Amino acid sequence: MSAALPRRDFLTGVFGSVLAAGIAVPMRSRAADLTLKKAAQTHELFWGAAVQHMELARDATFADLVAEQCAVIVPEWEMKWAAIEKHRGKPNFAQADAIVRFASEHGLKLRGHTLIWHRSIPEWAKDILGQPGGWDAVATHIAAMLHRYGDSRFIHWDVLNEVIEPNDGRDDGLRASPFLKAFGPDYIPLSLTLAREAAPGMRLYINEYGVDYDGSVERARRAALLRLVDTLKTEKVPLDGIGIQGHLRLDGSPFSETALSTFLRDLASHGVRITITELDVREGDLKMPLNIRDTRVADEVRRYLDVALQEPAVEGIVSWGLSDRYSWRTTPALRQQGLVNRGLPFDDALRPKAVTKAIVAALERRRPG
Ligand code: G3I
């Protein structure tokens, strides 16, 4: 399919045609305005995307696409501790508030991301975590964020991000992060308990990466995450969901449908919901013809979603960005070469691609819950 199809024709085409990307798509008299948002909602899912406040403020056509295609948005970095509280005791919510305002103005919900993450600790906090009163700073941050952003505008909060790291050599597979070094493994249940107290109605998540493929590292990560969830749920620690980031890659990594579906089923058996929280694809050869590149991205996402969406506990999908125009995957080095990673639902001209069709088709194939 040409990548040049304008968005509206594309979506009509998908549901006006019998065959799309080799997949039988039922003939439907769908309105031409079918969107990822509606395709997901039809199957009791939500579609969302990570966004940055300046993208929404400076790029009206992109902001329109976000409002049209997403039911949920996630601040890509604006709600992280290092961005909020550069100076101790002086949190600055302005950039985060801008995204919340956009969501409210467009009738969108939000996912909060993320309260506790080893890669977003304010410089001043790094120095005191291990000191007396260090935990007070963490607890104050959790309370401040959830008192401001812990209401019904938000469907979930990623309380903890990327707490698993088997390569750190611990028997429990936990990351030897500054939080763990300062407070021991209990920082995890303590954070979740504080979050529940601060926002009793909020769905509290732990968000993890690297559990999608079937290499030895991913298997160790899945096992460690399952052990953590089992321990937390056995000890009745408040935990409502697990975010599976879903950063896919075209490097030939081994992938096992059975391993992934078993993992998701085992997670769900502990009574947690699941969200695919950061879906995107890191391409391999960015100099191949666009149609080949786009087909490879579409096939990788289709293979993944065809497994993930068959798990009834999966409640939504968030792509880590909505358009290749704004993707963390397009590094400055790539841009200097005039290259763009094409791993998101819409291209850098905000047009749909083969992957958009693959996502809609995968949503269509989801069995009723
Ligand atoms: O330009 C802003 C500046 O105005 C602002 O004051 C400052 C505040 O820290 O940030 C500056 O921009 C950078 C921002 O990306 C926008 O490009 C930040 O320096 C930089 O830290 C931030 O990186 C983000 C990174 O997480 C760290 O927060 C990436 O955008 C974001 O894609 C990435 O997302 C993570 C998920 O949270 C967790 N999973 C992995 C994923 C990719 O690393």
Spell out the blueprint of helices and strands.
Elements: H1 7-16, E1 19-20, E2 23-24, H2 36-41, E3 46-51, H3 53-58, H4 60-69, E4 72-75, H5 81-84, H6 94-105, E5 109-116, H7 123-128, H8 134-149, E6 154-161, H9 178-183, H10 187-198, E7 203-208, H11 216-234, E8 241-244, E9 247-249, H12 257-269, E10 273-282, H13 290-308, E11 314-319, H14 332-336, H15 354-364
Parallel strand pairs: 3-4, 3-11, 4-5, 5-6, 6-7, 7-8, 8-10, 9-10, 10-11
Antiparallel strand pairs: 1-2
Ligand G3I binds next to α5.
Explain what the structure shows.
It is a single chain. By secondary structure, this protein is α/β, with parallel strands linked by helices. It has a single domain (35-364), classed as Glycosidases (TIM Barrel), CATH 3.20.20. Helix content is 42%, strand content 16%. It has helices at residues 7-16, 36-41, 53-58, 60-69, 81-84, 94-105, 123-128, 134-149, 178-183, 187-198, 216-234, 257-269, 290-308, 332-336, 354-364, and strands spanning 19-20, 23-24, 46-51, 72-75, 109-116, 154-161, 203-208, 241-244, 247-249, 273-282, 314-319. The strands form two sheets. Strands 3-4-5-6-7-8-10-11 form an eight-stranded parallel barrel, surrounded by five helices. Strands 1-2 form a two-stranded antiparallel sheet. Helix 13 links the parallel strand 10 and strand 11 (314-319). Helix 8 (134-149) runs parallel beside helix 10, helix 12 crosses helix 13 (290-308) and helix 13 runs parallel beside helix 15. The longest helix is centred in the middle third of the chain and has 19 residues, at 216-234. Mean pLDDT is 92; it is low at 1-6 and 12-31. Bound molecules: ligand G3I. Residues 52, 76-77, 80, 82-83, 119-120, 161, 209, 245, 278, 328 line the site of ligand G3I.
